[in-house]
Automatic annotation (TrEMBL):
Residues 3-90 form the Acylphosphatase-like domain. Belongs to the acylphosphatase family. This is acylphosphatase. Its EC number is 3.6.1.7. Coiled coil: none annotated. It comes from Gemmiger gallinarum. InterPro entries: Acylphosphatase (IPR020456), Acylphosphatase-like_dom (IPR001792), Acylphosphatase-like_dom_sf (IPR036046), Acylphosphatase_CS (IPR017968). It catalyses: an acyl phosphate + H2O = a carboxylate + phosphate + H(+). It holds the Pfam family Acylphosphatase. The active site is at residues 18, 36. Keywords: Hydrolase. Signal peptide: none annotated. PROSITE patterns: ACYLPHOSPHATASE_2, ACYLPHOSPHATASE_3.
């Protein structure tokens, strides 16, 4: 198990990105969250098997003609043993 934080840049707000992330992460059995950021990026934290985290990112990059990821960053985060699901955060939750 590992946890990663991703920040996606490009056409990622107003195109269903957060709900695509929710659907895909839930299907893969990942936990975490996704939220829009004030700068137009989308922040996502997910935890699970490394290969499933890779599948999540690949799916987000290739399955929608509306989403256009121009760049993204990734960094390791500590595991959250209490987290049980993946959720969409509304607005700019901090």
């Amino acid at each position: 198990m590992e946890r990663r934080q991703y920040r996606f840049f490009g056409r990622v707000q107003g195109v269903g990105f957060r709900y695509r992330a929710y659907y895909t992460a839930s299907r893969l059995g990942l936990t975490g969250w996704v939220q829009n950021e004030p700068d137009g990026s989308v922040l996502l934290e997910a935890q699970g098997k490394p290969e499933d985290l890779e599948r999540l990112v690949n799916d987000l990059r290739t399955t929608s003609r509306w989403i256009m990821i121009e760049d993204f960053t990734s960094r390791a985060r500590p595991l959250d043993p209490e987290e049980r699901s993946f959720r969409v955060r509304d607005g700019y939750d901090f």
